[in-house]
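Try this one yourself first.
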């Protein structure tokens, strides 16, 4: 690709605040992370979102003639709008002109485009969206997958999610021997429906992962687990509930701490602590979710993402590229087939 810097293709037209916030976060990532960003979309809108006196020679804009709206049916839109920004961004990865892609637009369209253009990794039946949650243990996040790609999951899919999640947790999040759990309604092996019981057996028998048993809802943020697998229906509900709880707690702190003179003084004294609380709880600090199982690094952000979220998503994408997470997942399955 002619450069040793990681190159990230950014869907500049995707998201509620595109292209302004997308461009702002991408430019910050370029300066602070040392990555090259390829802004994909309408050149006129992108240039209008650039800060005054921006050196256009240092900004790479890739033209895309269309964008996919949030209310469009994803698969049909991806097939019909071949020059949509998400498709053009995916093509850059497929053509090895970029190392990763990020979009805060239609998540279904991003997944459909990734599957059609990049394809699945060998041995993977379904890709999964994995997102990082904070836990009560500082500096110890938990990766939950799937959080929306697959409403229904066979036990074999959950086993594959566990292997992919373990690789990501180990090589990107820096976890030694990630502890894997299956989200369930009880700790006992026999708990849950038939699919959960069969998934538990597959996970327990898989020597590639460190499966330690079922995880109940209260265990997700406990710090006991490094990776938790579930179907996309449950995972998406869990994700949005956790985000809402975090926002509620932060709002309560903002409202209650400044009450009266003592509260204002206390708020000033606690400002560094409050900043750290926000960093641990605010989903914007984690940026986005990785689509695991496709043949390329693909991050999906919230539709409401603003510049800080965009920056953090690009940071996570860079870490995934630097740590060769796709190649490591592939090697896991090659080893599994050879040993089988």
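Now uncover the answer:
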């Amino acid at each position: 690709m002619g450069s040793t810097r990681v190159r990230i293709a950014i869907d500049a037209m995707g998201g509620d605040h595109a292209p302004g916030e997308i461009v702002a976060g991408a430019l910050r990532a370029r300066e602070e992370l040392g990555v090259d960003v390829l802004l994909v979309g309408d050149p006129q809108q992108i240039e209008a979102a650039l800060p005054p006196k921006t050196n256009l020679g240092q900004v790479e804009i890739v033209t895309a003639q269309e964008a996919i709206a949030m209310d469009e049916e994803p698969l049909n839109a991806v097939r019909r709008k071949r020059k949509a920004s998400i498709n053009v961004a995916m093509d850059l990865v497929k053509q090895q002109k970029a190392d990763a892609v990020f979009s805060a637009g239609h998540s279904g369209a991003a997944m459909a485009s990734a599957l059609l253009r990049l394809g699945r990794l060998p041995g993977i039946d379904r890709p999964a969206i994995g997102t990082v949650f904070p836990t009560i243990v500082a500096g110890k996040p938990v990766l939950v997958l799937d959080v929306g790609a697959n409403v229904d999951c066979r036990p074999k899919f959950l086993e594959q999610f566990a292997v992919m999640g373990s690789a990501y947790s180990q090589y990107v999040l820096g976890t030694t021997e990630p502890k894997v759990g299956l989200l369930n309604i009880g700790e006992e092996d026999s708990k849950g429906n038939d699919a959960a019981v069969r998934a538990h057996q597959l996970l327990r028998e898989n020597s590639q992962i460190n499966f330690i048993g079922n995880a109940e809802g209260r265990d997700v943020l406990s710090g006991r687990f490094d990776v938790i697998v579930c179907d996309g229906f449950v995972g998406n509900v869990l994700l949005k509930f956790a985000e809402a709880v975090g926002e509620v707690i932060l709002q309560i702190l903002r409202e209650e701490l400044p009450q009266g003179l003592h509260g204002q003084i206390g708020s000033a004294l606690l400002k560094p602590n409050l900043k750290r609380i926000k960093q641990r709880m605010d989903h914007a600090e984690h940026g986005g979710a990785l689509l695991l199982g496709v043949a390329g690094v693909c991050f999906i952000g919230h539709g409401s993402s603003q510049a800080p979220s965009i920056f953090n998503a690009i940071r996570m994408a860079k870490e995934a590229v630097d740590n060769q997470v796709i190649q490591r997942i592939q090697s896991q399955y090659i080893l599994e087939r050879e040993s089988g």
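Discussion: Residues 208 and 335 are 10 Å apart (CA to CA). The chain has a mean pLDDT of 87.
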